[in-house]
Amino acid sequence: MATRFGTDLGGYESTTVALPSEAVLLMCTAGLIEHRTTDIDDSLRRLTSLRLDTHGPLENVLDALLTRLLHDQAEDDVTMLATRLRAASPT
């Protein structure tokens, strides 16, 4: 069984998703999407509906996320990690 981050509350299930080469995977802390005046489901929908240009540097993707989601008004610490998937090199 894989170790999960967090408190192990909520009945989480493992899921495997095939991602295409060059896809950008974003991991973030709750500070990016949790806001006192907004339902978290609404915030998640807003995040997943964003259409960002992911072909340039990942730093630009992260900057765009901060600008479009937080508008310089973070209520909590925000940590983001992005990685671009590359096709495996033939050996």
Summarize the structure.
With 91 residues, this protein is α+β, with helices and mostly antiparallel strands.
Can you walk through the features of this model?
The chain has 91 residues and is of the alpha+beta class. The chain has a domain at 33-77. It is 25% helix and 11% strand. The chain is built from two helices and two strands, in the order βααβ. The chain has helices at residues 40-49, 58-70; strands at 24-28, 80-84. Strands 1-2 form a two-stranded antiparallel ribbon. The protein is globular.
Poorly predicted tracts of residues = none
Question: Which shape, going by the Cα principal axes?
Answer: globular
Kindly estimate the percentage of residues that lie in beta strands according to DSSP. 5-15%
Average predicted confidence as pLDDT = 81
The N- and C-terminal alpha carbons lie at a distance of: 31 Å
The beta-strand count equals 2
- Level of helix content? 25-40%
- Main sheet: strands, sense, barrel: 2 strands, antiparallel
Order of helices and strands: EHHE
For the CA atoms, what is the radius of gyration? 15 Å
Strand order of the largest sheet: 1-2
Total helices: the number is 2
Structural class: alpha+beta
